């Protein structure tokens, strides 16, 4: 039974991309034969999505790019083709991007390769905040379960940071990424050139694949730390799961709400995503990283997140998302996973790009990460950070002109490729991450 299930799982995963991973079939046959008669002695993880991932990554390692994009327009065209709300999108996107020269030639060892330098989790930040923020900054904050040394070391402060001469911005990455990998080719390049934003970013240990509440502790600490060493309020810009982390931080570390002026949420998944079922098709039999299990559509964590108030804004918030997101779905209308309520009356603008940009706009590339290099996001960030409350499209001088740009001013072909590059890396990291669960992790004890 176990052998049959494993083979079926591998073949099912391989069939998701017909014509591209035909070699998986042969590998499955050999793997199944090798397991026959010894399954009782083999760790349960062999009957697992991890094995599927290993096989697929081995196949991807054999795929060589057939082209190198020569223009941003060409990259946009490739990315637009792999976008869309399809169950196989995660796998198809990774394969297509690698084939088209928009990913590393090998996806093996990416966790080690992208864990140093601007992606390091071991940064030395010696400045002390103006007031005590650990073990808590406020009596209502829940206790941290992580040491202050580890929390502080995850904050990467670039050489461009002015320590309060400009308004600080904390950049929070998404699942299976690091801050440098996620933001250096886009926001971390553009924002230091402005007088309204001064970015730092987080490299959360475990690539944001550990439990979401654990990841949120790094966000809560970083907000209070950067505010404390600059004596300024901060803004937060987050991608994907980084938004669950940020809202969770606002919920259980209320001290953070008092020092955040603006929050821009890019491709958030406040309802989770139905597309992640391809990575966790059946918990209990198959496993996946903890944070992925908690982002399944209406997972127990998502239900708790919404029950305790995470689906409504705590600070002025601008959300930006695409109806054709290839990672988070649904992403359209009031039922969009990214749609944030404003029950506390702090001010919210929900921006579904397909509804606010003209139909043929180049900005409507529409994948999970493409907003990071798009001009509309930059315009919204500027408006939000230079006014009280969330962004307001009516204040932007020529919004349609921003929608008409293929990429934001100041970004080149290398930057657009670099932003897209993170997608297959994240895909590989999800499968290579060694800590996996077969059941969704329990909620922290402080959750009522």
TrEMBL record:
Protein name per the record: Alpha/Beta hydrolase protein
Superkingdom of origin: Eukaryota
InterPro entries, per the entry: AB_hydrolase_fold, Stereospecific_Lipase
Membrane-spanning segments: none
Coiled-coil regions listed: none
């Amino acid at each position: 039974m176990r052998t049959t299930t494993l083979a079926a799982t591998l073949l099912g995963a391989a069939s998701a991309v017909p014509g591209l991973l035909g070699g998986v079939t042969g590998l499955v046959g050999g793997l199944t034969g090798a397991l026959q008669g010894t399954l009782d002695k083999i760790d349960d993880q062999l009957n697992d999505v991890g094995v599927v991932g290993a096989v697929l990554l081995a196949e991807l390692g054999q795929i060589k790019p057939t082209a190198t994009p020569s223009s941003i327009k060409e990259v946009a065209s490739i990315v637009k083709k792999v976008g869309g709300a399809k169950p196989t999108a995660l796998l198809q996107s990774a394969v297509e991007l690698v084939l088209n020269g928009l990913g590393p030639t090998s996806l093996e060892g990416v966790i080690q390769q992208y864990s140093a330098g601007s992606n390091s989790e071991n940064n030395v930040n010696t400045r002390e905040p103006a007031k005590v923020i650990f073990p808590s900054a406020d009596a209502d904050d829940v206790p941290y379960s992580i040491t202050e040394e580890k929390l502080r070391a995850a904050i990467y402060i670039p050489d461009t940071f002015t320590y309060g001469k400009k308004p600080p911005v904390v950049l929070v990455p998404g699942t299976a990424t690091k801050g440098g990998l996620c933001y250096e080719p886009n926001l971390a390049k553009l924002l230091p050139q402005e007088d309204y934003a001064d970015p730092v970013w987080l490299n959360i240990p475990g690539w944001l694949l550990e439990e979401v509440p654990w990841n949120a502790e790094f966000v809560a600490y970083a907000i209070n730390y950067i505010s404390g060493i600059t004596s300024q309020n901060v803004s937060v810009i987050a991608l994907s799961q980084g938004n669950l982390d940020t809202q969770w931080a606002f919920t259980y570390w209320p001290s953070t709400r008092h020092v955040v002026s603006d929050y821009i949420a890019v491709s958030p998944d406040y309802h989770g995503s139905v597309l992640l079922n391809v990575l966790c098709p059946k918990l209990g039999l198959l496993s996946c990283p903890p944070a992925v299990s908690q982002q399944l559509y209406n997972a127990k964590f998502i239900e708790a997140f919404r029950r305790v108030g995470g689906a409504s804004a705590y600070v002025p918030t601008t959300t930006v998302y695409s109806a054709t997101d290839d990672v988070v779905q649904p992403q359209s209308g009031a039922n969009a996973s990214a749609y944030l309520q404003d029950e506390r009356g702090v001010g919210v603008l929900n921006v579904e790009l397909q509804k606010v940009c003209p139909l043929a706009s180049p900005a409507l590339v529409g994948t999970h990460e493409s907003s990071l290099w798009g001009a509309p996001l930059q315009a919204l960030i500027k408006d939000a950070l230079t006014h009280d409350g969330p962004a307001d499209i009516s204040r932007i001088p020529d919004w349609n002109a921003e929608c008409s740009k293929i990429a934001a001013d100041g970004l080149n072909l290398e930057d657009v490729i670099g932003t897209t590059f993170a997608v297959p890396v994240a895909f590989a990291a999800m499968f290579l991450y060694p800590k996996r669960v077969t059941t969704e992790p329990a909620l922290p004890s402080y959750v009522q």
